[in-house]
Amino acid sequence: MFNLFKDRFPVTHSEKEGVIDNSLDMLKHTIRGLIKEKFSSKLKIYVLDSGSCNGCELELQLLFSPLYELSFLGLEVVYDIIEADILLITGLMTENMYVELEMIYGKLKEPKRVITVGDCPVFTAPFKETFALKNNAEIFYSSSYHIVGCPPEPIAILEGLKEYLKKDEYSHQKS
């Protein structure tokens, strides 16, 4: 499909492309080292959308594209909370999802690690004034770490993950 439009919409490249690639490679190398140090070989993440516009989910999906290749760094999305090392929450805390979220959080293995992504879970999103919302996710999950943005760019998610892994108080326990 791209070949049909390549003459009409020429592809441009940033002059700083090499710098961006180099910083991304350094960031990926750092994250890979932190995952190996703290989780043996794989960091398993369970993603829960508690009621979002799907902007954060699209950015998360981009992280597993050939550009970022997070699966090669040792990150794996799992679909069973019992296997997960980290619960990653996106979206507003809706009344309907709160019971489900409590059940999932209860099944998360110790130490319970929670990362919230985007502005919605901490109520800085535009939809915060509605009857359908429970409350700020940070109130319920004091162990959480927050990655800011609406939606956060993939690089911001990677930076947030790196900072979380650096500050993780369970750094010498292998999951």
From TrEMBL:
The keyword Metal-binding applies. Its cofactor is [4Fe-4S] cluster. GO terms for molecular function: 4 iron, 4 sulfur cluster binding; lyase activity; metal ion binding. Residues 53-163 form the NADH:ubiquinone oxidoreductase-like 20kDa subunit domain. Pfam families: Oxidored_q6. Transmembrane segments: none annotated. The keyword Iron applies. Keywords: 4Fe-4S, Iron, Iron-sulfur, Lyase, Metal-binding. Belongs to the complex I 20 kDa subunit family. PANTHER family: FORMATE HYDROGENLYASE SUBUNIT 7-RELATED, HYDROGENASE-4 COMPONENT I. This is Formate hydrogenlyase subunit 7. It comes from uncultured Sulfurovum sp.
